[in-house]
Amino acid sequence: MFFSCATAAFPQSVNQDQLIRDAVANELYSPLITQNCTYQYHRQVSAKQETLLMVKSSDLVVGKLVRIGDTPVSQAQEEKEDQHLRQLLTNSSAREEERRRQQKLENDMRTLVQAIPQAFHFTQRQTEIGWAGHRLVHFDFQPAAGFQPSNASMELLRGMSGTMVIDAAERQIVKFDAQLFRDVDFGWGILVHLNKGGNLTLDRDVGLSSNIREFSLNVTGRILLLKKLEIHSSFDHFACFRRPIALASAVAMLTHPGD
Q: Which of 5, 41, 111, 182 is 20 to 30 A from 54 in CA distance terms?
């Protein structure tokens, strides 16, 4: 929730396009998920809902399945999860493979974020006065007519519209809410088809921490025109630490939570 006490027209002396470019640049130069923190990851795979407890160390993100639906995992399942985590500490090949996988995912996300100023046409809706007198600038956005995706996955941006809020003092995106207003195909309709109606939301605290409060993604569609695709995921309950967390400490937090 934003702490608003006033609304006003955005000063003409501030360049709207530059504000958006600066906010996107700040996202690119900071971790997508703040390092040295814990959070919960909720995902729905087919009809099964799962909750994982995650820790982002200074090296890797590690996680442990803790609930299926509303039921805690069995002792046998917990032991299996703990064994997998400990293998990351002892198996350098597995650790490096996981590092490459996470780096690829982050690079793909950064490519999409980097394209935001070119991919969308922004219209200022209002500003409000928030934390410590910071102006929170609200924008509506639609696909830009001249945007040409550089690869198939960026076709996703041509089907999105929504709203974005920027803290003008910090030059930081504090809220991003996008919906798929049309069906989107990746790879000319052969590989992935996403149905319209999906959404992506980022909500960040406004204040000293600027931590992510919630991130969610919900899409449905098909892979190879045959296999049903359904992704419902969200991240919440973020809690960060002042000191760096080494990978070994992150694994210990998950395998010995009571210590």
A: 111
Instruction: Quote the pTM value.
Output: 0.80
Contact residues for 50 (Cβ-Cβ < 8 A; gap 6+): 42, 43, 44, 65, 67, 68
pLDDT (tens digit, 9 = 90+) per residue, 154-211? Answer: 888 999 999 999 999 888 899 999 999 999 887 655 678 888 999 999 888 766 555 6
Contact yes or no for 229/221 (Cβ under 8 A): yes
Please state whether beta strands 120-129 and 135-143 pair in parallel, antiparallel, or not at all (unpaired): antiparallel
CB of 184 closer than 8 Å to CB of 156: yes
Collect all residues with Cβ–Cβ distance below 8 Å to 226 and sequence separation of at least 6.
Answer: none
Residue 120 and residue 134: Cα distance in Å, rounded?
25
The helix or strand, by DSSP H or E, that contains position 228, with its residue range, turns out to be strand 227-240
Gyration radius of the chain over CA positions: 20
CB atoms within 10 A of CB 102: 14
